[in-house]
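Table S2 (text version). Query chain:
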Amino acid sequence: MAVSGINDNNPYAFLNSTSSTEEKNKDAGTLGMEDFMSLMTTQLKYQDPMNPMENGDFLGQIASFAQVTGLSDLQDSFSTFANSMQSNQALQGSSLVGRTVLIPSSIGNLTATDGLSGRINVADPVTDLKVKIYDEAGVVVRTIDMGAASGYTDFTWDGFDDNGEALPEGVYQFKASGTVDGSNTAFATGVLAQVSSVSISSTDGLIVNLAGIGSASFSEVVEIL
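Corresponding structure-token output:
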């Protein structure tokens, strides 16, 4: 016995039927320009003949509806564009995993193989640039004498303290300073860190997660090595 509404020759025809129903339900709450014009025609048909709608009012309603519809379409376009940009960011960000980046920071992750490396922006030429390394307790464990320096200056700490003892791997703080016009002056620093993973934030965009020292916005990355 055949069931009404289903094609006997295609046992899967009901799938198309369901899809069509879903599309109708999806569009049921949407008011298009054709629906709007139908409503306007009905409004004109039953308007008060003693107080008819003026042409300006009629055109104004059409213009308002068209403007709202246009803004809605524009919003959908921007949403699609934003999703596309986010996908591209994630794809590009994945290529950073395992790479080393330079970001502004005064903390770094000491490893037995690479030590701890950073960069100092020596804004004013000095003859006694020093880099001091601090442990978690804020105690100076190593002072590196860099001598004369000017501009961007790189440094690497091998992980040994001032007594020649090897210190454990982990996070350490560092500060750079030198004498400028007779005064001890601190300089801005950056750290070299390895990207362990990346993620996408709805507010900050692409986020790079750095081994041992946390995360940073990709916009903070100064250089990719």
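Notes on Table S2: The first strand starts at residue 100 and ends at 104. Residues 99-224 form a domain with the Immunoglobulin-like fold (CATH 2.60.40.4070).
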